[in-house]
Amino acid sequence: MRANPPELAVRVRGLRKEYGGVAAVDGIDLDIAQGETFALLGPNGAGKSTTVEILEGYRHRSAGEVSVLGVDPAHGRLDWKARLGIVLQSTGESGQYTVREQLSHFARFYPNPRRVDDVIAAVGLEKQAKTRIGKLSGGQQRRVDVALAIVGRPELLFLDEPTTGFDPEARREFWGLIEELKSEGTTILLTTHYLDEAARLGDRGGVIVGGRLVAVGRIDQLGGAEARVPLVRWRDEAGALHEERTERPAALVVDLAQGVGGEPRELEVIRPSLEDVYLSLVHAAATASATAGTARELVVMHTEKMHTEKEGEPA
Ligand code: ADP
């Protein structure tokens, strides 16, 4: 059953998931091309895990269309599952087997596995191949998780907060590993709280807030051009702080310098980082939904008031 054009690894339309009548995912549309790394961002409780677990076939959706590698995950069989690699947030790996034993065991489940020693080398665990997994450091255990997820040569790899708890060096090494997988053509869906990780690894990304995708696009264009206009900040002679957004910061700085006849105090030109863009998107979405919530409450209060007044009317 191949419903997709072949270049799309993931196609989602109008995805909804309700828990007890409350929407955790509230109408998401999403395309991920084959070979693309897509970073899904959003605050806790935004609906990322729910979305990803529906794509992985672990949760049922309430409504919408979903196609992953051309298959509806709600009906994904074992041969479809074998085409996915999944790195969950917490490792459930048993510690009593060595790295090589565990990988060899898992490799047998797949029709076309990678060579176990190649995978061990790819994740940089050659020296630990004969070590029991329980004796490895947290970062090394995470590498085992990735090794287990890629041993089956997945077409689509799900990475759920893969570097949480890593030290900076381990993160950089891990990114190198992911970049290699990217260069081999693996499609990757990454969820992360680290914006630098999203910026480094992601080709495109999306921000989910309150179950809705509030922005989607190339990572370096998320939020639109407006969100990326540089900010010039300086202090005037009286000590007051000024800020101005401008597409032409150099011209503004020249004007300022001429105005004060020298160097403006505490001058800064700030280009919004992905983190700035992300935070303003999340803030704007949260404010909009709070306003919508207030508007809804007002409508409900108004309707209730009308009913009360009607009931109070003489017949
Ligand atoms: P994220 O991964 O972005 O942190 P989740 O997808 O885990 O968000 O959760 C989205 C919302 O759905 C949250 O409000 C969460 O409390 C709720 N939720 C998640 N799983 C369940 C569940 N099994 N039952 C009820 N509510 C859930």
Our Rg estimate from Cα atoms comes to 25 Å
Gap between N and C termini, in Å? 64 Å
SS field, number of helical segments: 10
Total number of strands: 12
Order of helices and strands: EEEHEHEHHHEHEHEEHEEHEH
Provide structural commentary.
The protein is 38% helix and 25% strand. The chain is of the alpha/beta class. It has a domain at 230-270. The strands form three sheets. Strands 5-6-7-3-8-9 form a six-stranded mixed sheet, with helices on both faces. Helix 6 (168-183) links the parallel strand 6 and strand 7 (187-191). The longest helix is centred in the C-terminal third of the chain and has 39 residues, at 274-312. The protein is globular. The model is unreliable at 298-315 (pLDDT under 50). The structure holds adenosine-5'-diphosphate. Residues 19, 24, 42, 44-50 line the site of adenosine-5'-diphosphate.
